[in-house]
Amino acid sequence: MRHGMKHRKFSMTTSQRRALFSNLTAALLNHEQIKITLQRAKELRTFADNMITLAKKGDLASRRRANSFLRNKEVVSKLFSTLGERYKDRNGGYTRVLKAGFRYGDAADMAIIELVDRDVAAKGAEDLARVAAEKVAAAEAAKAE
């Protein structure tokens, strides 16, 4: 019988899988689009959709459940403030999986998983802000010399 065989195992222990999908979910919610293997993307859909459903509820218990899974306060605050409001009127189906060819090293099926109605500027926004801050700091250091 197939009892308790809902998810793929990925040759990992339960704690490794939980950590993997926690980190992937946080990355997806932060950047709103990531590129991973097709099998991982298909599994990640369930976790991301569950987090957005918690954000739509918006109560304290939902915030605590999301915080215990994601372990990242910035992502949880974005989830409940921005994403919860964005998908308020949508009944599920918050993510989209697009096939993206094969990986060069081992020919694994790759996919792009993204949030439906995503903010295009969200991907790489942290890196752009960090690079801009480094340029400002370098310019001030050069001016001080």
In CATH's first tier, which class applies?
A: Alpha Beta
Q: Kindly report the name of the CATH homologous superfamily.
A: Ribosomal protein L17
Instruction: Summarize the amount of helix as a percent range.
Output: 55-70%
**How many structural domains does the protein architecture include?**
1
Q: Distance N terminus to C terminus? A: 73 Å
Which stretches are low in confidence, meaning pLDDT under 50 for 5 or more residues running?
none
Average predicted local confidence, pLDDT:
94
State the strand order across the main sheet: 1-3-2
Shape designation: globular
Q: What structural class should be given to the helix and strand makeup? A: alpha+beta
Total of helices: 5
CATH architecture: Alpha-Beta Complex
Number of strands: 3
* Whole-angstrom Rg: 18 Å
Biggest sheet features: 3 strands, antiparallel
Structure keywords:
145 residues, 50s Ribosomal Protein L17, Chain: A, 3 strands, alpha+beta
Structural features, described:
With 145 residues, the chain is an alpha+beta fold. It has a single domain, classed as Ribosomal protein L17 (50s Ribosomal Protein L17, Chain: A, Alpha-Beta Complex), CATH 3.90.1030.10. The chain is built from five helices and three strands, in the order αβαααββα. The chain has helices at residues 14-31, 38-57, 60-70, 73-86, 125-144, and strands at residues 33-37, 95-102, 109-115. The protein has a three-stranded antiparallel sheet with strand order 1-3-2. α1 packs across α2 (38-57), α2 (38-57) runs antiparallel to α3 and α2 packs across α4 (73-86). The mean pLDDT is 94.
